[in-house]
Design a protein that fits this description.
The complex is a heterodimer of chains A (377) and B (227). By secondary structure, chain A is α+β, with helices and mostly antiparallel strands. Helices cover 20% and strands 37% of the residues of chain A. Chain A has a six-stranded mixed beta sheet with strand order 7-8-9-3-10-11, with helices on both faces. In chain A, strands 14-13-12-15-21-22 form a six-stranded antiparallel beta sheet. In chain A, a hairpin with a 2-residue loop joins strand 13 (253-258) and strand 14 (261-266). Chain A is globular, with a radius of gyration of 22 Å. Helix content of chain B is 81%, strand content 0%. The chains are: A alpha+beta (377), B mainly alpha (227).
Chain lengths: 377, 227
């Protein structure tokens, strides 16, 4: 499965002019602030909007091409769509909503059957209900099931969690991870929430005012400091792949190995060897020129400064190469001057807090909730 | 009630039923065009549909007479080719009632269709439903309360139609003498006051039932479009 997208579309007050390609989408995130053109792009992919010019190719098949005049109707594209506001059919009960696309899939069978999907989404007790009698989270779960049962080759999700509270969001993110692992449906996930993207996405397309600012793996995009503030002001930080190597039962800790070394985090309920993805926010990283002694922090990794992004305010971002990965540290101009930091200089990064996002490996059948782990000191 | 009065009542019901049922498919089609499409001449069509609302019914009856009378071009052609004659026939009364009540149907159905979230149509497209499929699986069922409300209102308006019917198809007992025409005839006849009162009471009862039914249907529209 590959995506080859180029879309030019005039929306009156601003223009979308975005192109990107993804060879193995897994879960691809279209990330950017509101009004960056994310929804226009997936509406064009689904065939709900005909862009002024450009092309949409999925797996080499041209669904839209302004040059050749190709425009396959939305109903024949076999692209599923989960809308922000669910859009369940109000006159049908949940079962009929779920079966709407399945009955029109003309022989293709969904990657997951009706019964296992209903169980995965936890909507078995809702089948006879009308949408008006469902909560927001329940509606989104039904909308997700309806789209999956239509046997799409690609599933588009347009901020499906935006209208939900925090616990419902966690619940549905867990279900999306399970769907990815069980059904293996490629997804394009539109979001302006960094935590959703760093948890779910494999590939990340960063959009800014209708253009593509970056398109790469989540690890590569989040380790860049030149994208500031697109990848978050307060939440900015790098995502790193890691593996659980040891449990310290006595102290309720687990050790996660990253390319730069070992991080101790509060006990993760997963076996040794399990892949995890961790996120380290820039504001949770301190820098030291000498290995700090007599400090409560357990997690100190050695590296060297690979880039510095100076800013007008009090803070600046320092990118530190640690192993094959990168950490970002947000420090003050004053600290930079005091320590005399410059590019290429070896430093020690003191990590105050780590977020364990999920299992880094795909298809392992395991999932984990995103938990903010205050690193023990 | 006399046999003639019962005859007038049954005739009225039959004419109103045929008028509403015959006009319904056209009303749904035109309501859909007005609610969901943009085309040149849309405003003209909108005006044309609503013309019977603002035109005196007598003028409507006159227009029908001069176009569909047996000596008129269209009426003569219909009679020669198909053997269809509207003038002085209950079918003519049904036609007149259908045209007069047409705006009520279109209006109610159109409002119901406009209340349907267009996003549902887009959702149905991404689930593989083509245009005709979407019309029958989404638009029509969701507009159903409006269709029912429109049909009931049009039925009541058809029952009460006087001017267009008497002008177009005259006042023939058993053929075109509907309830309002029978009331009019009773009032014109010496000693017909009691008959007029009975018929008027009947008309009031019918109108009330129609009103209550359409109100119930309107409530359903609101509860559906609110979800």
């Amino acid at each position: 499965m590959s995506l080859d997208i180029a879309i030019c579309h005039d929306l009156g007050d601003f223009q979308v002019n975005a192109s990107f390609g993804v060879d193995e989408p897994g879960i691809t995130a279209l990330f950017g602030p509101s009004g960056a053109g994310k929804s226009t792009i997936i509406a064009a992919m689904a065939g709900l909007v005909a862009p002024d010019s450009g092309h949409v190719r999925i797996d080499g098949e041209t669904l839209f091409d302004s040059a050749s005049g190709t425009n396959v109707a939305a109903e024949r594209r076999q692209i599923g769509y989960v809308f922000q506001e669910s859009r369940l059919f109000p006159h049908m009960d949940v079962r009929r909503n779920l079966n709407f696309g399945a009955r029109r899939a003309s022989g293709r069978s969904a990657a997951i059957g009706f019964d296992p999907l209903v169980e995965l989404l936890g909507i078995g007790h809702l089948l006879q209900r009308k949408p008006v009698n469902l909560s927001g989270g329940e509606r989104q779960r039904v909308a997700l099931g309806r789209a999956v049962l239509a046997a799409p080759r690609l599933l588009l999700l347009d901020e499906p969690l935006a209208a939900l509270d925090q616990s419902r969001r966690q619940e549905i993110m867990r279900m999306l991870e399970q769907l990815r692992d069980v059904a293996g449906i490629p997804m394009v996930y539109v979001s302006h929430a960094l935590d959703e993207v760093t948890r779910l996405a494999d590939h990340m397309v960063v959009l800014d005012h209708g253009t593509v600012a970056a398109s790469d793996t989540v690890y590569a995009v989040t380790s860049r400091i030149d994208l500031f503030p697109l990848t978050g002001r307060f939440e900015a930080g790098s995502v790193l792949p890691g593996r659980i190597v040891e449990h310290d039962v006595k102290h309720h800790l687990s050790a996660v190995e990253i390319s730069a070394g070992r991080l101790w985090v509060p006990r993760i309920d997963r076996p040794e060897g399990a892949q995890v993805r961790i996120r380290v926010r820039a504001r949770d990283v301190m820098l030291a020129t000498a290995p700090p002694a007599d400090i409560s922090a357990n997690n100190i990794v050695a590296g060297s400064i690979s880039a510095i992004r100076r800013d007008d305010g009090a803070y600046l971002d320092v990118r530190v190469a640690c192993g094959v990965d990168h950490l970002i540290a947000r420090i003050t101009h004053r600290s930079l001057a005091r320590l005399g930091l410059s590019e290429g200089q070896p430093v020690h990064a003191v990590i105050k807090s780590v977020t364990v996002e999920r299992d880094g490996g795909r298809g392992s059948g395991h999932t984990s909730a995103s938990v903010q782990k205050r690193v023990p000191e | 009630m006399t046999d003639a009065e019962i005859e007038a009542l049954l005739l009225s019901l039959r004419i109103a039923l045929v008028a509403v049922a015959g006009a319904l498919p056209f009303a749904v089609a035109i309501a859909w065009l007005l609610a969901r499409t943009r085309f040149p001449g849309r405003v003209l069509l909108d005006g044309l549909v609503h013309l019977p609302l603002v035109l005196p019914p007598v003028v409507m009856g006159y227009l029908l007479l001069v176009s569909l009378g047996t000596n008129a071009p269209v009426g003569g052609w219909l009679l020669e080719t198909f053997g269809i004659r509207f003038v002085f026939s209950w079918t003519g009364a049904a036609l007149a009632a259908a045209i007069i009540s047409f705006p009520f149907q279109v209006r109610a159905i159109r409002l119901a269709m406009e209340a349907i979230d267009p996003g549902l149509d887009a959702a149905a497209r991404t689930l593989g439903a083509g245009p005709l499929d979407r019309f029958f699986s989404i638009t029509l069922p969701l507009a159903l309360p409006g269709i029912i409300a429109g049909a009931i209102t049009a039925f009541a308006a058809s029952l009460g139609e006087f001017g267009a019917i008497i002008t177009f198809v005259s006042n023939i007992p058993g053929e075109t003498r509907t309830l309002p025409l029978a009331i009019y005839t009773a009032i014109q006849s010496p000693g017909g006051e009691a008959a007029a009162a009975r018929l008027a009471g009947l008309a009031i009862a019918l109108a009330l039932v129609g009103l209550i039914l359409s109100e119930a249907a309107a409530r359903r529209v609101r509860s559906l479009s609110g979800s």
